[in-house]
Amino acid sequence: MRWAKRRQATFYAEGCQRLALPVSIVRNYVSLAGDDAMESVTRIKTKTPSPYQLTAIHVDTHDTKTFRFVLPDNATLDMLPGDHLYLHATINGKAVKRPYTPSSLPGTVGHFELTVKRYEMGIISKYLHDQNVGDTVLMSGPNMGGHWVDGMAKKVGLVAGGTGITPMISIIRWILAKRLDVELFLIFANKTEADIIFREEWARDVREYPNFHCYHVLEQPPAGWSQGSGRITADLLRRQLPPPGPETVIFLCGPPPMVEALEETLRGLGYPEESVILP
Question: For the chain, which residues make up each domain, given as ranges?
Fold first, then answer.
């Protein structure tokens, strides 16, 4: 995998002073907007927690919301599809942090979005769901994770459970927006039909992009459900994913027990360890 050389200079950009963000400027990089349009864009990456203001909240499902945070007009997060931020908070006198992958399209200027499911035992997820428009939230990063790099594969399987979908939406939006010559196969597991995040977007993408395939699996499917039911099995993976090969990669994200079990299953199906990527 070849990485392009980039020359960086780190400093406080005037446009970011209102957010107190130390940022990195990277010029002459490939972007959806093209080299000329993006040459002066500020790419933000912070090592220490920095405040981001919440500007909008969208309700996705009964327990999942998308939170939009402001960036300077000419700024974007310095990340590849699948990289993550750390969200920081002090709760009951204790400093805590959790990783979240932005769900917004990488390269978007002026804002970014996090899509977060509220878990009763999730300290940070409950904290974020309690925030209101106008509040500020501390975050650091982006941090490198298991991410997509253009040219790494021609066939991409994406296996997600619950909010493990957030790195997948970032990768899928990137590949489709750039109209890359890549075939995408998404398997998305949830408990019920009401838990499917971005459901309308998946349906629209299937209609508009012949290279995008989506298969839903529900633990508790409704009457007449035509796709998968129960859990993700070896047979289902064999039928819905591209076969192992030198131009195939599989992204896998979800609850740890699911990820551990499916890593083993994928190995048994012949996918090399290096082809299975955990965002």
Answer: 47-143, 155-277
Which of 101, 115, 163, 166 is an active site residue? 101
**pLDDT per residue as tens digits for the range 78-122:** 999 999 999 999 999 999 999 999 999 999 999 999 999 999 889
Concerning whether 88 is annotated as a catalytic residue, the answer is no
| Pairwise CA distance, residues 87 & 269, whole Å | 36
Q: Fold match between 47-143 and 155-277?
A: no
- Fold (CATH) for 155-277: Rossmann fold (3.40.50)
Q: Give 180-235 pLDDT, tens digit per residue.
A: 999 999 999 999 999 999 999 999 999 999 999 999 999 999 999 999 999 999 99
CA 279 to chain centre: 8
Fold for 47-143, please state it. Elongation Factor Tu (Ef-tu); domain 3 (2.40.30)
pTM of this structure: 0.85
Contact indicator for 246, 271 with CB cutoff of 8 Å? no
216 belongs to the catalytic site: no
